[in-house]
Amino acid sequence: MFSSSSSYTSFFMILLAAFSLFPLARAQLNSTFYSLNCPNVSAIVNTAMQQALQSDPRIGASLIRLHFHDCFLQGCDGSILLDNNSNRSIQSEKDAAPNANSTRGFDVVDNIKTAVESSCPGVVSCADILALAAESAVSLAGGPSWNVLLGRRESTSANQALANTSIPAPFENLSNLTAKFNAMGLNVTDLVALSGKFLFLYFYFSKI
Ligand code: HEM
Ligand SMILES: *[C@@H]1O[C@H](CO)[C@@H](O)[C@H](O)[C@H]1NC(C)=O
Ligand SMILES: *[C@@H]1O[C@H](CO)[C@@H](O)[C@H](O)[C@H]1NC(C)=O
Ligand SMILES: *[C@@H]1O[C@H](CO)[C@@H](O)[C@H](O)[C@H]1NC(C)=O
Ligand SMILES: *[C@@H]1O[C@H](CO)[C@@H](O)[C@H](O)[C@H]1NC(C)=O
Ligand SMILES: *[C@@H]1O[C@H](CO)[C@@H](O)[C@H](O)[C@H]1NC(C)=O
Ligand SMILES: *[C@@H]1O[C@H](CO)[C@@H](O)[C@H](O)[C@H]1NC(C)=O
Ligand SMILES: *[C@@H]1O[C@H](CO)[C@@H](O)[C@H](O)[C@H]1NC(C)=O
Ligand SMILES: *[C@@H]1O[C@H](CO)[C@@H](O)[C@H](O)[C@H]1NC(C)=O
After folding, report:
1. Which of 2, 43, 95, 124 has the highest CB neighbour count under 10 A?
2. Residue 135 maps to which CATH number?
């Protein structure tokens, strides 16, 4: 690929240009983001998830899906949680086609947020709470656990139109699904692995 030193140099010039065009992409998340100001946040989320699962075994699946539907447009920024707000031109993503009448668990997110706020007010983003809740759901279902990368900033806007078109729909074919996953930096291996895992989790939580 790098047959001459000039193509080698231009490769790095393009990389450099790409990174300076997207300075936010350089801000790295890390798993110790709240270690000073909310060190116990994972345990708080985990306890709240355990409580929620006691009355609704399906809620773990629902929170995993909320995180997925939050992330698939403009990043994992909590935008799916925003309600209509005409002053801020927000048309809630909750009413987008892939979400209306099928996303659930917003009340549980509120409960988790309340528990987190009572320990560390004004510190943890709701975007990070969705990421933590999804991990907790997977691990409480007997799946793997991982250190959640943290430090997501909260969106101040929603994009219902983009939610309608970016989130994969159940009638889409492989080329369309592949394109939508590719747009998120995910490839066909990721698509197959995630599809298998969500089905497993869905059946697990639904106790089918
Ligand atoms: C590959 C493209 C995907 C399509 C077309 C798709 C579509 C759907 C549909 C139609 C439902 C049923 C919604 C309802 O209750 O009416 C569903 C549920 C669900 N999806 Fe997906 N999905 C996809 C990928 C994913 C991925 C990548 C994840 C997780 C990372 C995921 C997690 C879930 C979960 C956990 C549920 C059950 C939610 C609940 O019971 O509340 N899905 N999906
Ligand atoms: C994690 O990220 C935050 C924000 O970028 C930074 O202040 C902190 O030093 C990072 N921690 C580690 C261990 O890299
Ligand atoms: C952390 O949170 C858990 C769950 O809410 C609680 O049981 C535990 O006592 C907390 N630990 C500390 C050090 O605050
Ligand atoms: C947002 O506003 C629309 C139009 O008024 C309404 O149909 C919808 O139920 C509202 N959505 C939410 C989440 O409150
Ligand atoms: C959601 O369900 C309500 C009540 O059944 C229905 O009126 C509405 O059209 C549905 N919305 C969507 C987007 O399917
Ligand atoms: C998104 O799709 C829903 C359901 O089809 C539709 O009611 C709504 O108008 C769409 N929103 C936008 C902004 O296109
Ligand atoms: C695939 O995506 C194209 C372009 O967005 C769209 O026109 C088409 O309806 C999609 N096909 C299916 C099967 O959803
Ligand atoms: C998927 O649908 C798109 C548009 O709807 C079409 O152009 C494409 O050939 C289809 N791909 C497959 C694998 O069927
Ligand atoms: C997808 O990416 C992973 C690395 O992230 C790689 O191991 C895998 O082979 C890739 N799959 C395809 C179909 O390119």
Report:
1. 124
2. 1.10.520.10
